[in-house]
Prior knowledge:
Blueprint: H1 6-30, H2 41-78, E1 86-95, E2 105-108, E3 111-119, E4 123-131, E5 142-154, E6 157-165, E7 203-215, E8 218-227, E9 230-233, E10 238-241, E11 252-261, E12 267-280, E13 283-299, E14 302-312, E15 317-327, E16 333-343, E17 360-372, E18 376-387, E19 393-403
Antiparallel strand pairs: 1-2, 1-3, 1-19, 3-4, 4-5, 5-6, 6-7, 7-8, 8-11, 9-10, 11-12, 12-13, 13-14, 14-15, 15-16, 16-17, 17-18, 18-19
Helix pairs in contact: 1-2
Amino acid sequence: xxxxxxxxxxxxxxxxxxxxxxxxxxxxxxxxxxxxxxxxxxxxxxxxxxxxxxxxxxxxxxxxxxxxxxxxxxxxxxxxxxxxxxxxxxxxxxxxxxxxxxxxxxxxxxxxxxxxxxxxxxxxxxxxxxxxxxxxxxxxxxxxxxxxxxxxxxxxxxxxxxxxxxxxxxxxxxxxxxxxxxxxxxxxxxxxxxxxxxxxxxxxxxxxxxxxxxxxxxxxxxxxxxxxxxxxxxxxxxxxxxxxxxxxxxxxxxxxxxxxxxxxxxxxxxxxxxxxxxxxxxxxxxxxxxxxxxxxxxxxxxxxxxxxxxxxxxxxxxxxxxxxxxxxxxxxxxxxxxxxxxxxxxxxxxxxxxxxxxxxxxxxxxxxxxxxxxxxxxxxxxxxxxxxxxxxxxxxxxxxxxxx
Length: 404
């Protein structure tokens, strides 16, 4: 069935109305006189001539309106669509002394702006920009986090081109950048974005192929990414996605397969893996492999998520995981707990070049209050941050996250 957009539908309705009006005028113009009427020849001729001229003028006006309508509708189809579905995520925080704050402080979180547009049932666009206020000037305060164009052929094949989140794990492809989406104050620390010191390649520039299919008893889905790999900045010791060029000929490949059984609504089981040839100064390349599994159960009042990541190269390997549980006890209050851990080998050539290169774990407990489930939430949590060779911090945090 051919899809007709809202603007096109309005145009057809208007044009049809004008056409019906023109037809009625023509019908009145050509309607014969009834038998038995007086023959007012002279008066009738003059009146008919005047009536005909008046009707002709109205018809000409209607035709002009149709032509103007066609021109305006054609122009409307070419108007930029950015901003028609424009939204923003933000958050304001209070945090006691921790690894990033020398003193208790109020912290303004990033402002995340996004816009999505769908043209017909197949063509889609997404743009997402992040304004980060806690970076020093000149370090990229504004960043395009996601920018892609997609085309859906059928349920089994959608192709997207641009910058998007790598197909590794559940969290990275579900919650994106808005902290209102998180049950907790922040992402697991090892899943932080590259410029925030994360140790995983969570963004990719290239192509993504995805699809899903319903089968008897379950639904299965896939995501396959092919794009530029990453390199490690020797000055900041952070991962850097290759956005406009690639530092080697190899391309990163990532694949995630997931399954949702019909008998347990809200349950998702996934496996994933990626191969990325990292460019590192003084070392030609390191072929870093990341693979693992995820399990999530989000249904009714419960949210349970756990993921495991294995990071390996030809010399060493490391692992990371987290377990998170939340349960809505009364209406809008959801207590939660999470444990997250990163275990590395100090001689790993990959982690030796990164800023976060030692064992670390965090224990988190908190509560979330939904002022409006889709627009605003308050979160209060305690976080115990233990890092090998460093001081352990007991941190209190409060966050007001919102979307508009």
